[in-house]
Fold this sequence. Notes:
Helix content of chain B: over 70%
Oligomer: heterodimer
Number of helices of chain A: 1
CATH architecture of the largest domain in chain A: Sandwich
Largest sheet of chain B: none
Radius of gyration of chain A: 24 Å
CATH superfamily of the largest domain in chain A: Immunoglobulins
Shape of chain A: elongated
Strand order of the largest sheet of chain A: 2-8-7-4-5
Helix content of chain A: 10-25%
Number of helices of chain B: 4
Largest interface: A-B, 41 and 40 residues
Order of helices and strands of chain B: HEHHH
Structural class of chain B: mainly alpha
Strand content of chain B: under 5%
Number of strands of chain B: 1
Amino acid sequence: MLLDEEVFAVILAVSIIASALGIALTLKPGNPEPFTAIGLLNEECRIGEYPEVVVNNSFIKLCIYVANYLGKPGYFKVVYRIALNETFPSNTTFSPENMVEEWRVVLGDGENKTFPVNVPVYSLRGETRVALVFELWVYDGSANTWIYTGRWNHLYVNITV
Amino acid sequence: MKYAYTACIALLLVLAMSTPLVVQSSDFDSEVGVLVEEAGKLYSKGVDVAMVIEKLDNAIALYESGRIDEAYAALSEARSMIMDLSSVADRVYYYNTLVKAVTVAVLAVIPIAIYLLLPRIYLYVWFKTRRKWIVRG
Lengths: 161, 137
């Protein structure tokens, strides 16, 4: 035979695999694993070189990064609190400390935003080492409520007088 | 029995005092939330909602800077953009579905076409490239 049968079989097999892969990629769901992300950056909006010692009742500049991979647009807010070890947030509960500031942002699917913030820092209940906690919340339009995403960032600082 | 009641009451008290995972929102938040939800429905149909998202984000920035009237005006603009996009959403959805169906059909036909046509095309090319050959005895 002019066209070798084995060569023909290999070409056919490759075409079947490529076709199946192409169909699977075409029909795959938009975002099988939705998630959100929050990041804390220094005042130049870079990782590292965070302030370690802060004067009591002063302000420090930081940057916050928020990303949306929920597979749909989302309405987010970042809540800033000053917390101690015993009032830290967890993956399921937010910190019980009072909110100091909050920032809102609307992001499309796959979008992210980095924005500078100027946050007040002060000693909490006389403690000289506090954590600056930034929690990510998402708005649930069907229930008309803010829901804690379970994602947060923190930065420990030592307070001086 | 008394201890069981005490334990139940203590458990209920702890649950009642535990921190809730949700927080009630303001009117502005609920308006933005509704519009984001609407934009999400359009997005799921394949409509490009980037302009709406930008407008909503702009409204929030205005609200946070204390320009409340301008913020609500931006929300109104976003609402009208969503209404405009809603009118074409179904058409976009059907078009995207059709494109997807045609893509799948074409991909599914490729192996069959190779099975049926490859030997014929190969033979045709083989004979065509050798048509001037002279066979000598």
